[in-house]
Amino acid sequence: MERRRFVIGGLTVLALTGPASAQQAQRLWRIAYLTLSPRAAPGVNPIWDAFAEKMRELGYVEGQNLSIEWRSADGYADRLPALAAELVRLKPDVIVVPSTQTTLAAKQATTTIPIVMAAATDPVELGLVSSLARPGGNVTGHVVTGGELTRKRLQLLTEAVPNASRVAVLADPTNTSHSLYWTQTQTAAQALGVRLQRFEAGTPDEIDRAFVAIREARVDGLMVFPEPMFYNERSRIAKLAMNSRLPSVHGIKGHAEAGDLMAYGPEYRDLYRRTAIYVDKILKGTKPADLPVQEPTKFEFVINLKTAKALGLTIPQTLLLRADQVIE
Fold first, then answer.
1. Per-residue pLDDT averaged across 72-95, rounded?
2. For residue 25, what are the contacts with CB-CB under 8 A and spacing of at least 6?
3. Which of 145, 227, 235, 237 is the most buried (most CB within 10 A)?
4. Separation between Cα atoms, residue 151 and residue 6, nearest integer Å
5. Per CATH, which fold does 147-266+300-327 belong to?
6. What are 268-279's pLDDT values in tens digits?
């Protein structure tokens, strides 16, 4: 280590220079991440990877000047309150949450530590923020509105399956947003002349049972509401849908990549990159109350043509031309 001596007012001061002293002076920022999904290895969860990549671009490197305390409920929403309280006791600089359920749990655990939402729903209606423009408290981030997106997904499914008259909807009863989604989907179904039937799975253990009931209902298609637990179980859901011979539509691209027929919704990787930008602003001193809650600006429509062929479906050319990605 390089040392230099300075004499100031008769006192000798030993100054430390070089990389070691710079590291000692560098602050270690602590981020807490509360999720329903287990932590995956890099490259397995591209949505989370987008957040980590953007944080590195902004100068935050895990293990150097960044520590991430990760807590997962493993798909069981009733575990979230205890995990949120555990994270708050660690006194992180920011809590990052991916969904409505995790935002509610974090907000109930603290009113002072900044909370950044990656893709929550209805924060105003749920009392998480005063308004989108002026959040007013310790919560800000990004919101995904369900109404228009839900109607769009049902419309796309009926275009892909023109003779569909009965559609199953898979929802999570523990997700408060799904009640609103259900109401909005019913309105859309009436306009399209489609009959809906709702099925529920609140934990990973309940998914198989839900699909047994869906098969017995003899529906023509399936809509799965966006949900972290469903996303984590996307490969299993895709296999169950295929075994049930059900064309399905989802709100997250990863479902189509896992083998489901279609997905339409926000570009979640973009939302997570923008979440990292908000975290950076807060770490640099901006208050959550001064950061407006933002809506998605990028959307993606994905069709899995391989799945369509396996189901014996011929996707209209007009639909294929509208897709941002066609998986063959």
1. 96
2. none
3. 227
4. 71
5. Rossmann fold (3.40.50)
6. 999 999 999 999
